[in-house]
Amino acid sequence: MSGPWQTGWRASLPALAAREWDVLIIGGGITGAGILLEAARRGLKALLVEQRDFAWGTSSRSSKLVHGGLRYLKEGKFGLTRESVQERDGLLRDARGLVEPQSFAFGDYAGGKPGRKTFLLGLAIYDLLSGRRERHAIGHSEFLMMAPNIARSALQGGMCYTDAKTDDARLVLRVLQQAQAHGGVAVNYMAADSLLRSGSTVIGARLVDGVDGSAHEVRARLVINATGAWADQLRGQTGAPAKIRPLRGSHLIFPAWRLPLAQAVSLMHPHDGRPVFAYPWEGVTLVGTTDVDHGASLKAEAAITRPELDYLMQALQHAFPDLPLAEGDILATYAGVRPVIDSGQLDPSKEGREHAVWIDDGLMTVTGGKLTTFRVIALDALRRAMPLLPGWDDALEPHPIFMPPAPARLRLRGSQRARLEGRYGDAAGALVAAARPGEMELIPGTQTFWAELRWAARAEAVLHLEDLLLRRTRLGLQLRGGGTGHMARIRAICQDELGWDDAHWTASEAAYLALWKSHYSLPT
Question: Does the global pTM surpass 0.85?
Fold first, then answer.
């Protein structure tokens, strides 16, 4: 087996379109992927389509954190925090190697807010909700050992706690892989052009293939709009009013040697007091995030702006005065648009992060929420869907998020084995078996094996070079210049697997590098 997406798999699209589906899911981010998994494992015939690539939107551009929502305690949202910590712990259990614990350290500075007692009280409640106990208070010298380059003026000590982090795009791919093992079908580069109706009721969608332009009418007993920040566009076809407030979060990525951290460090911005995090991720150091209204068109790819870059750099330079960090140190940038429900708050950061489910003319829209709670969101959507699917009934009890991968001889040390099994599940053994000599070596500056490029090109529905380097792997974020220095070897590994001739490769490489320069490098 070469993987969920066999060679030439797009040739079967007309036959897929002709099938009668129980559920048609529009949107290939974590919300849509989670719904596909929960629907397929419960016996529903489910098809997911994504107008761009899987995880192309918000779900490859998040802060990569799987967290319980400590900030929600301040807002009195104890139920949301409990739900989040339970899902975080489930992912840590079921997705070991893909979702990993991450310690967070907060400096306690004289006059800083929130005060030490308030913060420690919040952490005690956090422990209670998650069913764990940790030591949170840290003395001055111990904190400096944890964050040796941190600003020392007025530092009294610190606090710490544990959450988790992940590779968000790989999490989406793993969920889709699991869904397909249960009979679900996922197709990228397939846009929902318009809704199909019977009278006033939505019964399907007209889909347009982004590869060859062919159109397909797909009918389903239920259509679910899981397009996140783009949800109002499809929902607007029913005449429903807009409810989404797109908020942009932008990030910087530094080489680990330039901003060395053993754990995540929270930086309180000197101008507005907002928390900004810096933490080790996939062999680099990630810094984020901003939280601003996204005024640009949602048809264009999001990118960091000059004010956001300046804002994040100010936080870093204030927090790490002994590290003269400059823009030239930045490896890459990225920006994502969050699907936040508009409640009219003046400050974007005060908008809630709960998910919402709406039904308009039979079209179900599921949006909002966060990466951590994708399973809760999926089960809530299916609970609301049950009356719309006569004859289908399920208790909707939570199952393990991922089943343990089949035993495989990977001949790797513990952490590397866990990493591959976490990201690729049952396909980890096939990935290693497909590796050519020298391909089970790590790409310098990353935690990625060369063999992962071959496997992605062979078995993970890569249609453009950006799919390979920005989502199947994260080399476009981890390597200077988007990976230009390694492009010859990437081509040697992947061109034949993709079946691209020289002209196709050259055009795809040029398109990728232009995209990287305009959206993943420093803003002009």
Answer: yes
